[in-house]
Amino acid sequence: MSVQGPSIRNGHKAAIREENEKAILEAAEQVFAEYGFSGATTSRIAERAGIPKANLHYYFPTKEDLYRRVIDNIFNIWLEAANSLDESDDPRRALTRYIHTKMDLSRSRPLGSKVWANEIIQRAPIIQDYLETTLREWTASRAGMIQRWIDEGKILPIEPRYLLYMIWATTQHYADFGHQITTLNDGQELSDEQWQEAKRNVTEIILRGIGISS
Amino acid sequence: MSVQGPSIRNGHKAAIREENEKAILEAAEQVFAEYGFSGATTSRIAERAGIPKANLHYYFPTKEDLYRRVIDNIFNIWLEAANSLDESDDPRRALTRYIHTKMDLSRSRPLGSKVWANEIIQRAPIIQDYLETTLREWTASRAGMIQRWIDEGKILPIEPRYLLYMIWATTQHYADFGHQITTLNDGQELSDEQWQEAKRNVTEIILRGIGISS
DNA sequence: AATAATCCTGACCGATTGGTCAGGTAATAA
DNA sequence: TTATTACCTGACCAATCGGTCAGGATTATT
Question: How many CB pairs below 8 A link A and B?
Answer without folding.
Answer: 172
